[in-house]
Amino acid sequence: MSHSQFNSRRHFLMGLAGASVVASSPFRASGYQSPNDRPVFATIGLRNQGWAITSKSFKFANFAALADVDSKVLEENVGKVEKAQGKKPDAYKDYRKILDRKDIDAVMIATPDHWHTKICIEAMRAGKDVYCEKPLTLTINEGKLIEKVVKETGRVFQVGTMQRTEFNNQFLTAVALVKHGRIGKIKKVTCGIDAMEASPVIPEAPVPEGLDYDFWLGPAPKVPYRALAEMRKGYGGGVPLYSNGHYSFRNWHEYSGGKLTDWGAHHVDIANWAIGASQTGPSKVTPVSYKLPVEYKDGHPLVSDQYNAATNFEIHAAMPNDVLLVITSEGDNGILFEGTEGRFFVNRGKITGKPVEELKDKPLPDGAIEEIYGGKVSENHTENFTAAMKTRKQPISDVWTHNRMLEICHLSNIAMRLGRAVAWDAQKRVIVGDEQANSFLGRESRKGYETQA
After folding, report:
1. In this structure, is residue 75 part of a structural domain?
2. Domain assignment of residue 386, yes or no
3. What is the CATH number of the domain that holds 134?
4. Which residues are CB-neighbours of 79 under 8 A, at least 6 positions away?
5. What is the pLDDT of residue 27?
6. Separation between Cα atoms, residue 64 and residue 102, nearest integer Å
7. Terminus of the chain with fewer CB atoms < 10 Å: N or C?
8. Same domain flag for 301 and 414
9. Is the pLDDT of residue 17 over 90?
10. Do residue 151 and residue 194 come from a single domain?
């Protein structure tokens, strides 16, 4: 698709929205003007996590519109939203039709990662607040662009790192234990984020019916659709088990960053928060051991028919105050904090260790969790987002702390792709003395899908 063809769709409904856009929405008569009003939302990208964040937001917002490039997914989710809220949302293939609407206050974005930055920036420029799934960006430079636009527009921006809010305060308790010195001086934090599977050779295949695959690719390079016949079961099911689309886009550097930016975006976030590194970063990232599923040259995979994100890895990041941050595919999924006076482990199912047991007799000070959270703790990440929309203050998972954390994950992938350690200037946010490595801080978008910051 050419640049002109893409832009021409801005004012053309993709055949899926039945109602015209009018100033007076059936979801809100006079705009989101009072703190007592329910904001009007739209979701862009509806598979899996897109439905998850939508469904848990009904108690806080009305959904006026949905967008997805797969007509079957779109139709299914329109029905589910109508059933849940009693009103049918409008349906669009082209997300920009949502951004054109003046009656929508905020968008929830759950597209594949390679689309996040473009949609986020266009949404903020269109006057929308944004809730975007993690990982927020595909590259480090994208994070800088989003920060720039958040600052310029004053929009409220929540990243979907919901471990900061949910899971029975277990992660907040972990942060509080560290900050209140319950394990002494922190020496080492280990984030277990699971291994990534390799794939067989994946042949070219017909594009699934109803999917606009070219639009799905968007800013990514134009390549043939690939898939094997075996279908995925369980979470993310209903799609080929092996493909270069859903659900497997996370296994390709063209669209995501493997486990480093998937689970890593959750656990490294909590680790970074706990050790007080949310405003800084590592001095060096070293790939101690790793396995790439295909051969690489100069940081780029030499084949295009197999997953290319690292399958196994142990990464060491040198953090401020002589803290060693380890990111590994081995062991239990979760975070192990080790200090001079103890250690404990936390994940979504448990928080264990002697410092945790000692809370029975020596609880944290009153208000310790609220102090970490910055006020009353929400039970739902969207609740925190909508509260921030009213106060016009940034929510708990803000852009700046998220990007500082995610830089560690991106640098880990760069180091593995190039097969060497990278030194990081956390103030200038550049790799030191390595021009080739610095070339991976950004990525050129396909013509017609550039991001205009």
Report:
1. yes
2. no
3. 3.40.50.720
4. none
5. 55
6. 11
7. C
8. yes
9. no
10. no
Residue 236: CB atoms within 10 A of its CB come to 15
Tens digits of residue pLDDT in 91-118: 999 999 999 999 999 999 999 999 999 9
Q: Are residues 63 and 86 in the same domain?
A: yes
Q: What is the pLDDT of residues 42-78, one digit of tens each?
A: 999 999 999 999 999 999 999 999 999 999 999 999 9
Which domain does 127 fall in, by range? Answer: 3-164
Give a yes or no: residue 390 inside a domain. Answer: no
In angstroms, the CA 153 to CA 175 distance is: 31
Task: Indicate if 134 and 212 belong to the same structural domain.
Answer: no
Amino acid sitting at position 248: S
Domain stop point among 106, 133, 164: 164
Domain count, the chain: 2
CA distance 189 to 322: 11
Go through the chain and tell me how many residues it has. Answer: 453
Nearest to 187 by CA among 342, 66, 406, 395: 342
List of residues 6+ apart from 31 with CB closer than 8 A: 103
Average pLDDT over residues 299-304: 98
Asked if residue 138 is part of any domain, the answer here is yes
Q: Do both 367 and 292 map to the same domain?
A: yes
Helices 113-125 + 140-153 axis angle, to 10: 20
Between CA 342 and CA 88 the distance in angstroms is 54
Is 194 in the same domain as 92?
no
- pLDDT score recorded for residue 7: 40
